[in-house]
Amino acid sequence: MGAVLQPLPPARRPAEVPVPAQPGDDPIIRVYVWEVPVRLVHWTIFFALIVLSVTGYYLYNPFFVVRGQTAYTLATMRFIHEVTAFVFTAAFLVRIYWFFVGNDYARWKAFIPITRQQRRGVGEMLKYYLFLRWMAPDEVGHNPLAASVYLLIYVLFLVQILTGFALYQWLLGSGPLTAMFGWLPRLINIQYLRETHFLLMFIFFAFTIHHVYSALLVSLEAANGLMGSIMSGHKFVRRSILRKEQRGE
Question: Model's pTM, two decimal places?
Answer without folding.
Answer: 0.84
